[in-house]
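DM from R.C. (forwarded with permission)

"hey, sorry to bug you on a friday — could you get me a structure for this? deadline for the figure draft is monday and I only need the backbone to look sensible"
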Amino acid sequence: MYSTTTGTHPGIELRHSPVGGETPRSEVPEQIQSAVFEIEQFGVSYAGTPAIADISLRIPAGEITALIGPSGCGKSTLLRSLNRMNDLIAVATHTGTIRYRGLDLHAADVDPAEVRRRIGMVFQKPNPFAQSIYDNVAFGPRLHGRSKGLDDVVERALRRAALWDEVKDKLREPGHAISGGQQQRLCIARAIAMEPDVILMDEPCSALDPIATLKIEDLMRQLREDYSIVIVTHNMQQAARVSDRTAFLTVDMEAADGQRCGRLVEFERTEKLFTQASDERTEAYITGRFG
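My reply, with the result:
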């Protein structure tokens, strides 16, 4: 299989043993250039109990995609599957396929650590390390063996996270000493420092006040110029404001055993989904009559 490429990250290679050589962008099939994830009949179970099932959707590159739905529908489970974080849960198993720019993420020769480097994650609550602001951002590059040019890496990541001007004179202060909104942008900078292709965000504003939330939303719009973003949010207004496309998941009761399981109901451009939903369950959720 060819070495996948993107516009800003040529030669992406996720295997344990790289095959070498860089495929020019023009030689990569157009379908793979335009889709960052292709998910087919994907499901996840925890200790044999299904959490999500039969999820199929194609997430375009260079856009913000929102995952919405009621609690327990599997939004975060699906998000964590996109960079194989569910592998860290011993009782988690999966069915189906997720392809990242044409490459099967669960192929035997794919390195999960490299997957997580290329597909970064920002969590619900800000989680800066117990280190300085500088060391938080430099942590990942150092872990991967980089020792030169770290000052430039840190400054560039903090600028991309719209945080540099606020902390440039505090780089040696603890990361937890800044405000909650600044901490979340610090965590985004930490992800950016790894030069990812995709940024996953799991309810990144749920612990923030409205002003900090708007700053994060503005930042997401800016980051869309260079990254594909997938966000889980319970905030309908936020999904409508920032996303290009929205996937609505719901919880179905399985007839066979009465277990609850998350399933995809609808995936559409955000404006259309919020104004002309194709499924009455989507409309009921968006209008507050369900969920």
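R.C.: lifesaver. Residues 126 and 184 are 5 Å apart (CA to CA).
me: no worries. The chain has one domain: 25-286.
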